[in-house]
Design goal:
mainly beta
Length: about 150
């Protein structure tokens, strides 16, 4: 994803737009399949060999807190409910209308193309930071649970 693209995170049906920082991680665990018999018959020789196993995903993102703090408070409520929520990580191209600005939430009115990753996630951590000088920010960490779906926005 190139600089200058519109990356949006939608948590529990609310778009938290224009994060100050956002990481979307997909990890695949592996299982070693090397055996003595396998090593002798394989070109790998003395090197271990692996097969892919289970895959997991998570999101870590930071935002400027909205003036009314509804964005931060809504996520705290979701975390305290202790249930998996819907999450979408959206890489939008050519959006025609979106809410922008510090602490802004909103909607995508139209986009000509892009990619959307979606699934259920559990909010594992929320951190609030309020410096003496500057904007208050919050960070949220989400652990994906179950299938991650990849779709093209057209």
């Amino acid at each position: 994803m190139k600089k200058g693209k519109d990356l949006m995170l939608k948590i529990a049906n609310t778009i938290y737009g224009y994060a100050t920082d956002c990481q979307f991680n997909i990890t695949t665990d592996t299982t070693e399949v090397t055996t003595t018999k396998y090593k002798r018959a394989n070109a790998a020789g003395k090197f271990k060999e692996y097969e892919p196993d289970v895959t997991s995903w998570d999101v870590n993102s930071s935002y400027v807190v909205a003036e009314d703090e509804t964005d931060y408070n809504a996520l705290v409520e979701k975390q305290l409910e202790g249930v998996a929520i819907d999450v979408e990580f959206i890489d939008v191209k050519d959006a025609t209308s979106m809410t922008k600005g510090a602490g802004a939430t909103g909607s995508i009115d139209a986009a000509t193309a892009g990619i959307k990753y979606s699934g259920k996630a559990i909010i594992t951590s929320i951190q609030l930071s309020a410096p003496t000088d500057g904007d208050a920010t919050f960070s949220v960490q989400l652990q994906g649970t179950g299938t991650l779906t990849v779709a093209t926005i057209s």
